[in-house]
Amino acid sequence: MIYPDRTISNLLLASTTMVLLLGANSLAYGELKEFSGIEGRTFHEFMYRTDNCSSCHGVDDPVGYPEDGTCITCHSVDRLVEETMSESEEDRWQNPHDSLHWGRDVPCVECHGEHSNKAPLCADCHNFDYPGHQY
Amino acid sequence: MGKGHHDQGRRSFIKGVGTAGAVGLAGPMLLGSAQASNTQWDESYELVILGSGFAALAAGIEARKKGIERVVIFEKMPYFGGNSSINGGLFAAPVTPLQAEEGIEDSVEKMVEDQLIAGRGVAHRELLHHIATNAADALRMCEEAGAEFLPYLQQLGGHSVPRTYQTTVSSGGGITQPLQRECERLGVDLRNRCLFERFIQDESGRVVGVRIATRYYYDRDVNEGETISVEATRGVLVATGGFSQNIPLRVAQDPTLTEDIGSTNIPGATGEAMLAMFRLGAVPVHLAHIQTGPWASPDEGGFGYVSNYSIFNFPHSIAVAVDTGRRFMNEIADRKTRSDALLENRDDEGNPLPPILITSHAEAKKHPSAEKVLRYGVGWKFDDLESVASRFNILLEPLKAQIEEYNEYARTGEDKQFEKSMEHAKGKLIEPPFMVVRLWPKVHYTQGGVLVNTKAEVVDSITEKPIPGLYAAGEVTGGIHGVSRLGSCSIPECLVMGLTAARSVAGEMT
Fold first, then answer.
1. This prediction's pTM
2. Residue B21 has pLDDT above 70, yes or no
3. Which of A7, A110, A127 faces B378 most closely, judged by CB atoms?
């Protein structure tokens, strides 16, 4: 795949929209896949081909998580908030990217796992259904 | 954003993480304190605040307003707001604008008396009085920071009059979010994933700093950043909340609160800083008085949606045992009375038989959570009593008789069965369509903690004097509420004691 003038960020957001629109039919998108010795998300395939670990972890043989804020060097929180905003005013503060409890401040890795599946933080207390969430 | 910009961003990010290689096991390193003479300070502040809930945020704001220049909040969780961010957003205060509007007569003394009764003789009158006296001011501070409240009051269990405000979002997040923004605006440093490890004292015993493990991940219990020594030139405020989620500790205090009983709290409510204060010499008070919330649901995790729904609806609803079809408690008694009554509902083998709360849908739907309760399948609407009886395996005739009996009490305004205060329930009959949720208590609040005085100073168990440089506020403190805290009395306590601590550090509480 070639990315001409479009930024990675825009591509990912376009894909997120697609997931939201297609719902359950698009679950294959974002699934975990084996990339040279480690499982990763299919939508990050291009990163495993090039920089490998250091693209997120900063080092080639990481022992821990990347710093909070790593994901948002490519992804825009504001755009994510927009993408997951409900049309109903009643659900305004049920937006996982801008919730009534923590606003826009929850680090991405609390709900999203790059190398393994992860349940969203909301699931601790609520039976929400987020069909677009990539566990 | 162009590609060049993106690459630039990534390069600077790589530079940023290149040095962070230290990985440590965070848990077992906890000790009471270390000596300052051996310490090389990595950073220095005037006031160090541990935790980021109501008490911490109020203290941060007040400290800046009182001219304390360098203030930091260390939060061990990835997000700010502590357990306050997921609490019910219910705020009791006497003599408020809404009470004036609704013509409700109240006083500081009346609120304190209500709390002393629920405290069963061992609550702290002086602290309760200090808190009630300043509660309306704390409410104003929240509103000034942007917190929004529903335009009506609620009468919660154990309160003799309606005096409880609730945030429009039905959660403490409606307060912690604006207070956090206010802290940021005032220049308070807010740092997440920062685990408190121990206090640092000077030769005289004064608390002069803390050890903090950075980049802490609570779910794996590791810190992946450096561990730093942070100086606190004017004081350390511990506002780290309770220990409802520390199962061994809570079972040691109350063996009935076993692992299989859920909790409404965030996973971080485990009490390490409280234990470290005990090691410094703080007085442990009332650790065994651990409150379960009688409004929680077994059909969702944590506080969920049902808790606030039930709190709002208890006054004009009936709680019914499924094996008898009869009421078994005053639905607005204090929390302990109701939890104890709920927990008696068991089958012959001792398994829980969660009772149901029946409400007229016409009343139930007045609370903003009702629609969510239905949508997420944690409560149900029924057109007739037959459907309720068959769904929950209740004998129809006793259930029907119970509702007729209760409706007579609702008409007359006198509950002859359990003497429930019908001030808010008179005339509200239980009629179809019905709305029903199931109830089972969850561990909610630890009334115990360290002893503080009305200056939020932590008292030493041997000298009976304040431990210099050490302050505490909020659920980490103990003994204020006695055996059972009344609902909506934690928010005023946290905020007022947080404000008090900041004023003490600023030298204003003489």
1. 0.88
2. no
3. A127
